[in-house]
Design a protein that fits this description.
Elements: H1 2-10, H2 13-16, H3 25-45, H4 56-77, H5 88-117, H6 124-154, E1 160-165, H7 169-180, E2 186-193, E3 202-203, E4 206-210, H8 216-221, E5 227-231, H9 235-248, E6 252-256, H10 259-263, E7 278-279, H11 282-286, H12 295-302, E8 306-310, H13 315-326, E9 331-336, H14 339-352, E10 358-362, H15 368-378, E11 382-385, H16 392-397, H17 399-419, E12 424-430, H18 439-460, E13 466-472, E14 474-476, H19 482-491, E15 496-498, E16 504-505, E17 507-509, H20 510-523, E18 529-532, E19 538-539, H21 540-550, E20 561-563, E21 582-585, E22 591-595, H22 601-617, H23 620-630, H24 642-649
Parallel strand pairs: 1-2, 1-5, 2-4, 5-6, 8-9, 8-11, 9-10, 11-12, 12-13, 13-18, 14-17, 15-20
Antiparallel strand pairs: 3-4, 6-7, 16-19, 18-22, 21-22
Helix pairs in contact: 3-4, 3-6, 4-5, 5-6, 12-20, 13-20, 15-17, 17-18, 17-22, 18-22, 19-21, 22-23
């Protein structure tokens, strides 16, 4: 009969609404204090109270005192929060702490009052009596709440069955939170233990499954479990290959931040936990242990400085803008020619960094007059030069534009930085500048050479501007990168296209790349090319396989993978160092300095000016030939410009305007 009444009660509209709405925290606090007041009332009416004849004034005064003390301790300890999420044991502990501390405080108040007035507010036995009864009533209250919510959520068949990784306290908290979430998306049916040792049947009511790679199908598919949930403390384990067995078996992986980050964050107890959970993306698994960067050093340089950022609306440039704003730069000048992205970034900055002084400066970096106006007006102390054309196939088709932006644009900004006394100029380069096989890579190498030669020449003239280069690989999630492309292809049903089965690339995250740029700008003294420990390269074909599996699909069954052939200028692998280059260690073991040859500034200027002039006139053949003669390691791959390599190899004389000093010394 009792179960029938409960079922009928749950059918009421008010109870059904609890699937999507929970009791506000203030209401739990109010009920707690009402129960404490009831405990005091029982004490007053009990035969154990020798002062039953107390006046109404004394009773009310003592009631206010008891409720005030318990209310303060409850509020400070937050024991009225997360009633749904926490286990019974955790709730008992929190309520015991509240009662114990309140009892101690009331005893101290009673003692002080007795010392002054020779009387007591409440008998010491009465304080203990109230504490014991309050503890019992608060515990019963929480058990009833948990029971009601458990019965409500038990009727929800729309939840996705999951396992929680691990058997630690954090794993138990997460499992309880998911189980008791009102209107939640996930139903935790157990814990997946990866520890060796004695097996346990269950912990705190959750069945424990022992992890064995060969048993994954049996554990998950056999029990109708759809996914594995883990928190950020397990991400290193996942990156080291643990995730592969789940991906291969099409088991979804779900991630959540550390438990303490969401445990006390919700305005309403037990709600919205599912919003913290996200599908694991390939970027999460490609990452590695975070690189520890010297934020204090960066902050000391950037704070209160005027910073100019070219290419400010691109993937790298916009993240540099955000980080510079975080370090409280006095003024940030955003230079870019893209109107709509500039507008979007300005709206973002107003929202996220309302106190930042942001200047929107439209202009193309190879427009010297326009760029000089920016330097003259704002007098930047730091310049981060991220403006560049970067797409290899596109620049093979438009080589003159690559030269005008990547070479002439860099030359303009570098020259202006020197002219207007910029303290540090930091150029963003790429691994494609090493032994370049395409137009884009060679233009970035030319830009590197110019900045270095300009620095050494400026030193001779007593100028203090420091020119620094950072060189790294592909950036995860940047505009036009392979991962967003694969994701779009998967969403549209395929096929996923790779240029070659064996092609490999290095990857890093956008924030990591930009942190490197900022630290390099602050730690460098000029003339350095900083390179980054990129970890192990990734085979793009394997990347496609994993992305398809992470989407819950079967590679080459649900989604085809097609090889389309290497694109013009593309090579199978990228390098971070030239064969003739060595590296020098820095204070950060993940950041190194490439020791490269020095170029004579006069030779550099004459050759680069000649290349720019040829680009402006549209003479592509002679322009590319001059680039190859000045950067002899530039060998085209899968490109029409391979014919020019053959011309040079067959002994054709260099162009009349080609200048190169073969005796230039190697840098120290």
């Amino acid at each position: 009969m009792f179960d029938t009444l409960i079922r009928q009660l749950f059918e009421l509209r008010w109870f059904k609404s609890l699937k999507t709405n929970t009791v506000p925290r203030w209401m739990i606090l109010f009920i707690d204090m009402l129960l404490v007041a009831c405990s005091y009332g029982v004490f007053v009416l009990s035969s154990l109270n020798p002062q039953i004849t107390q006046s109404a004034f004394v009773i009310i005064r003592n009631l206010i005192l008891v409720v005030a003390v318990y209310g303060l301790v409850t509020f400070m300890s937050k024991s009225y929060t997360c009633v749904i999420r926490l286990s019974v044991i955790e709730d008992l502990y929190r309520e015991f702490v509240v009662v114990f501390v309140s009892t101690v405080i009331l005893t101290c108040i009673n003692f002080l009052y007795a010392t002054i007035t020779k009387d007591v507010l409440i008998s010491y036995w009465g304080i203990i009596y109230i504490g014991v009864l309050s503890f019992a009533m608060l515990t019963i209250e929480r058990l009833i709440i948990k029971y009601i919510y458990a019965r409500i959520t038990a009727t929800d068949s729309q939840r996705r069955k999951v396992l929680v990784l691990g058997t630690s306290l954090d794993s138990l908290i997460l499992a309880n939170a998911l189980k008791n979430e009102i209107g939640g998306k996930y139903e935790p049916v157990g814990l997946l233990s990866i520890k060796s040792g004695k097996d346990k049947d269950e912990i705190n009511g959750f069945k424990v499954f022992k992890y064995r790679p060969e048993k994954i199908q049996e554990i998950f598919i056999g029990n109708g479990i759809h996914a594995l949930i883990f928190d950020s403390s397990s991400i290193k384990l996942m990156r080291n290959g643990f995730a592969d067995a789940f991906i291969e078996n099409n088991i979804a992986l779900l991630a959540i931040n550390k438990v303490e980050e969401f445990e006390l964050d919700d305005e309403r107890d037990g709600s919205n936990i599912s919003t913290y959970i996200k599908e694991v993306q390939i970027e999460d698994l490609l990452g590695r242990d975070p690189i520890v960067l010297n934020n204090a050093l960066v902050r000391s340089h950037i704070k209160d400085s005027v910073v100019l950022i070219t290419g400010a609306c691109g993937s790298i440039g916009s993240e540099i803008v955000r980080q510079v704003a975080t370090y409280k730069a006095r003024r940030i000048i955003l230079v870019d020619q893209a109107e709509t992205p500039m507008h979007d970034l300005s709206l973002e900055m107003k929202k996220d960094f309302p106190e930042a002084d942001v200047v929107l400066y439209m202009g193309d970096v190879h427009n010297h007059a326009r760029m000089e106006n920016a330097f003259k007006e704002y007098q930047p102390k730091y310049v981060f030069h991220a403006a560049a054309y970067k797409h290899v196939p596109m620049m093979e088709l438009n080589p003159t534009e690559a030269v005008l932006t990547n070479v002439e644009g860099t030359k303009n900004i570098a020259d202006l930085a020197l002219k207007y006394g910029v303290y540090k100029f930091v150029m963003v380069s790429t691994d494609k500048a090493v032994n370049p096989s395409n137009i884009m890579g060679c233009t970035k190498r030319l830009a590197e050479i110019y900045c270095q030669s300009l620095f050494f020449d400026a030193q001779k003239m007593g100028k203090n501007t420091q020119f620094i280069t950072t060189r790294f690989g592909n950036v995860l999630g940047s505009n036009g990168s392979v991962i967003p492309l694969f994701r779009r292809q998967i969403e549209s049903g395929g096929p996923v296209t790779v240029t070659h089965r064996d092609i490999i690339r290095y990857f890093m995250t956008i924030p990591e790349a930009c942190s490197l740029v900022l630290e390099a700008g602050c730690m460098g003294h000029g003339g350095e090319i900083y390179i980054f420990d990129m970890g192990q390269p990734v085979r793009i074909y394997d990347l496609a396989m994993r992305m398809i599996s992470l989407a819950g699909l079967r590679p080459n069954v649900d989604i085809k993978i097609e090889e389309i052939g290497l694109r013009p200028g593309e090579k199978l692998y990228e390098e971070l160092l030239n064969d003739k280059e060595n590296t020098i260690k820095t204070d950060n073991e993940k950041i190194m300095i490439a020791q490269v040859r020095k170029y004579d500034y006069f030779d550099v200027c004459n050759n680069i000016d000649n290349i720019i002039e040829l680009a402006q006139s549209g003479n592509i053949h002679d322009m590319v030939k001059s680039m190859k003669q000045f950067v002899p390691e530039y060998k085209s791959m899968h490109s029409e410009y391979e014919n020019i390599d053959h011309e040079i190899e067959n002994g054709d004389k260099p162009n009349d305007n080609y200048y190169f000093n073969p005796t230039a010394p190697v840098g120290e």
